[in-house]
Amino acid sequence: MTSEHARPLWRGRALALVGIVFVAFSLRSAVASLSPILAEIQADIAVPAWVVGLIGTAPPLCFALFGIVTPALERRFGLERLAITAMVVVILGLVGRAVAPDAGLLLLGTAVLFAGVGVGNVVVPPLIKRYFPDRTGLMTGLYSATLAVAAFVPPLVAVPVADAAGWRFSLGMWAVFAVVAVIPWWAMLQRERVAAEGVAPAVVEEPAPRVLGRLFRLPMAWALAATFVLSSTSVYASFAWLPVILVDIADVSHATAGVLLALFGAMGIPLSILVPIVITRWRRVGILYAGALIAGLTAVAGLLLAPTTATVVWVVLLGIPQGLFPVALVLIQRRTRTHEGAVALSGFVQSFGYLFAATFPLSFALINDATGQWTIPLLMLGTLMLLAVPAGIVASRARTIEDEWEHRHGAWR
Hints:
The chain crosses the membrane at residues 49-70, 82-100, 106-128, 140-161, 167-187, 220-242, 254-279, 286-306, 312-332, 344-368, 374-395. Keywords: Membrane, Transmembrane, Transmembrane helix. It is found in: Cell membrane. The chain is mainly alpha-helical. It folds into two domains: 11-204, MFS general substrate transporter like domains (Growth Hormone, Chain: A); 211-413, MFS general substrate transporter like domains (Growth Hormone, Chain: A, Up-down Bundle), CATH 1.20.1250. Helix content is 79%, strand content 0%.
């Protein structure tokens, strides 16, 4: 959705590139570094089951809450300052969690950490739109691939590091990446300050008022929110319960179920690279929704009807709807014309997505406790996949939220 010609990726924006990569790594490694060493933590300090449950529910709830407030914060402080603030909060949360003497402070550090991550989640897509308008597909692919790698690496190294140096060091060491993420954005702000010295203050264009409230009336905003709901909810539900489901219905060992969960997560890496290319180069948005729908429904049907026959195939297919995550990220940029539209749409989409993502794992647990089976939870997951139909139809339209508003209600500003 830009008329700019592509220019070299590094020219004049190397700091932004480095900043986006390290912010992305910090956002996801902060989330993925606790659960692998929870047993080591519980061996040292008492962590009740209800605290563990709250820690598991905290990420999507914090992401939803701060997705709502971030657009207002951005209008006040700007994207770059907000990115720095988010990383500083992440650092405080990681360090606080690592030195926590009891379960209460461990939970508090986790909440602080996820507040920073929630803000960071929202600001990165508009940062990509601002600094890389000619490379949105490439940069979104790099961003989402970095998220996938950062979710994959901590489970591999957290336990060995905890065994060698203790769980506190294993938790706290990820703060180094957040510290590095601050540096390029701080340098950019300082460079802009120096360049602006002696220059008359520019007239700042005020963002359109109540942009976030307008999105509730726009089909495109709801289509992208549904896209994020489908992706984030299926991922959180799978990470929470897929190993247990596979042990119960597919007759696999706990070790094999862990490997299959890693396979599920690894599906996000190639999809993060390929999906932005399909959208930006080939402009085939509908085929991505169709692929997610068919793969998701086939996976659920396979797990219900023949769980032991081709378990690996069902897990791989279940991982394909993860590709709708980079779809949402790219379309947040390509379905907006204005800066404030991109920020508001990012917050709107992620808030609804993570809010639903927080409810599904709990619903799975309650239904399984009541029925002793996984049939209804899997049918719920299959029903969720049907969101790809209306969402794909609307999201495939090459129009922006500003276009929709102007068509329905008059001038955007």
